[in-house]
């Protein structure tokens, strides 16, 4: 992994910070000793894992891809980081991401051609994106710089880059992983949000155990009901992706699954609902970056206009404004403006509350559908990875549509997984499976067959 990292990271831009080589090698030796001696073995001994740079780590900086946290080092590790470390894995580094998880475009290059072509050919084609916001994590796995990487999936940020880069991307049921130490974007979507109690976890595993697939031979799909939601056939979908989708459906059918056409009527509102609710939560979460408690602080002299001690508040106001102006990038500012707007009196009822009600309707749709099917199969993305040159600041709205297939699972809280399913124009592309809340295990099993 280290040698691949050294070879490709300069072109792929997957890592923001890499763990010191001597630390990695020391941990690897310790793990190797444990394995050789056969005592105190741990389940993930020696496995190199990378973390998206919004998971807090004590040893490495946690920047969230933002100037605001450029030099920030957390005093604690995120729970998921601790758990994976205690299981014997090695932190290889922190991966690149769209600032605060907002975007689908990513500052990372798609590693696909970079690693498959001769080095001399690299400049001969136009570079494509790895996707975002967990683009660094997907690209790091795809180029063999680590065995696995953690991302966060608020609206598809794990599944979308996984599809573009040709790796598996999994978003668990909401609440299944702790979000302690994950820097918040939108709390009610971030999967890894607030954890479930042990009692609810037990209930969840019961759902999984009762599903037909887990009762039968795990590699036989007989009895499994696969739903194809009509509403996912959107006009943005290109013919080759529709073909790929059909191929996935026929494959599951050939393995003994029963295919059923289903309808989630309100799904057509999912994208706009998400882009009202997520920025609203983000605007509130990001209010904490005030230039005082931690993170970036503007060096502009905010007292230059006011020298009167009675005007302390205005001083602080200027510091706050300057810090946020210099610390946040354009997409984050756009989300803060949008979110603040929808939360103000006057627009709150028309936008925020209405979006909450629609979210509920979308949840009810899915609940109903899962009474008749075990999993849903859909595309993950509307296209293969776009070219870097396709995106500029004037066409950002066109890019929100990239999330059209991933967002419903976040609104509803259900598990979803993106599985590599062939190539188009020589670039990888995935298919998505979704299952009922808590039924993550069935998802894994069907995914394994589709893979
Ligand atoms: N494109 C989505 C957004 O910008 C992705 C969010 C995510 O999953 N972190 O909101």
From TrEMBL:
E.C. number(s) listed in UniProt: 6.3.5.7
Catalytic residues (positions): 52 (charge relay system), 133 (charge relay system), 157 (acyl-ester intermediate)
Primary location class: mitochondrion
Keyword field contains Protein biosynthesis: yes
Every Amidase domain range: 1-443
Entry-linked PROSITE patterns: AMIDASES
Localization annotation: Mitochondrion
One GO CC term, this protein: glutamyl-tRNA(Gln) amidotransferase complex
A GO molecular function held by the record: ATP binding
Domain of life: Eukaryota
Stored Gene3D superfamilies: Amidase signature (AS) domain
One Pfam match: Amidase
Keyword annotations of the record: ATP-binding, Ligase, Mitochondrion, Nucleotide-binding, Protein biosynthesis
Reaction(s) catalysed (UniProt annotation): L-glutamyl-tRNA(Gln) + L-glutamine + ATP + H2O = L-glutaminyl-tRNA(Gln) + L-glutamate + ADP + phosphate + H(+)
Biological process terms in GO annotation: glutaminyl-tRNAGln biosynthesis via transamidation; mitochondrial translation
Subunit structure: Subunit of the heterotrimeric GatCAB amidotransferase (AdT) complex, composed of A, B and C subunits.
Family annotation (HAMAP family): GatA (MF_00120)
Task of the protein: Allows the formation of correctly charged Gln-tRNA(Gln) through the transamidation of misacylated Glu-tRNA(Gln) in the mitochondria. The reaction takes place in the presence of glutamine and ATP through an activated gamma-phospho-Glu-tRNA(Gln).
Family the UniProt entry places it in: Belongs to the amidase family. GatA subfamily.
PANTHER family documented for this protein: GLUTAMYL-TRNA(GLN) AMIDOTRANSFERASE SUBUNIT A, MITOCHONDRIAL, TRANSAMIDASE
UniProt protein name: Glutamyl-tRNA(Gln) amidotransferase subunit A, mitochondrial
Source organism of this protein record: Diversispora eburnea
């Amino acid at each position: 992994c280290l040698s691949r990292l050294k070879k490709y990271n300069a072109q792929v831009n997957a890592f923001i910070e890499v763990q010191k080589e001597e630390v990695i090698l020391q941990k690897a030796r310790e793990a190797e000793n444990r394995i050789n001696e056969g005592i105190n073995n741990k389940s993930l001994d020696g496995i190199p894992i990378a973390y998206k740079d919004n998971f807090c780590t004590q040893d490495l900086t946690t920047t969230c891809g933002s100037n605001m946290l450029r030099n920030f080092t957390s005093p604690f590790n995120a729970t998921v980081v601790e758990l994976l470390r205690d299981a014997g894995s090695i932190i290889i580094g922190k991966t690149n991401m769209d600032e605060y998880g907002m975007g689908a475009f990513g500052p990372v290059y798609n590693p696909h051609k970079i690693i498959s072509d001769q080095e001399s050919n690299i400049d001969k084609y136009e570079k494509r994106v790895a996707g975002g916001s967990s683009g660094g994590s997907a690209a790091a796995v795809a180029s063999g710089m680590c065995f696995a990487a953690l991302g966060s999936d608020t609206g598809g940020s794990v599944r979308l880059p996984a599809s573009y880069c040709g790796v598996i991307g999994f978003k668990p049921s909401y609440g299944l992983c702790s979000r302690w130490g994950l820097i918040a974007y939108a709390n009610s979507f971030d999967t890894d949000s607030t954890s479930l109690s042990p009692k609810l976890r037990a209930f969840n595993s019961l759902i999984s155990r009762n599903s037909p697939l887990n009762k039968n031979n795990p590699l036989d799909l007989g009895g499994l009901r696969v739903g194809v939601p009509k509403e996912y056939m959107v006009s943005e979908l290109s013919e080759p992706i529709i073909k790929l989708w059909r191929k996935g459906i026929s494959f599951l059918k050939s393995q003994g699954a029963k295919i059923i056409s289903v309808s989630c009527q309100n799904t057509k509102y999912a994208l706009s609902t998400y882009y009202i609710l997520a920025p609203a939560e983000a605007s509130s979460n990001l209010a904490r970056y005030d230039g005082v408690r931690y993170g970036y602080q503007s060096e502009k002299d905010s007292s230059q206009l006011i020298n009167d001690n009675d005007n302390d508040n205005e001083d602080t106001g200027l510091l706050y404004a300057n810090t946020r102006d210099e610390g946040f990038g354009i997409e984050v500012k756009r989300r803060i403006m949008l979110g603040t707007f929808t939360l103000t009196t006057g627009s709150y009822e028309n936008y925020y509350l209405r979006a909450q009600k629609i979210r509920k309707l979308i949840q009810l749709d899915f609940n109903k559908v899962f009474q008749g099917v075990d999993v849903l199969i859909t595309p993950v993305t509307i296209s293969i990875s776009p070219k870097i040159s396709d995106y500029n600041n004037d066409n950002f709205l066109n890019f929100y549509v990239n999330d059209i297939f991933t967002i419903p699972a976040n609104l509803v809280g259900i598990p979803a997984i993106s599985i590599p399913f062939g190539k188009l124009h020589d670039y990888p592309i995935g298919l998505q499976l979704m299952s009922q809340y808590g039924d993550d295990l069935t998802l894994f099993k069907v995914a394994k067959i589709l893979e």
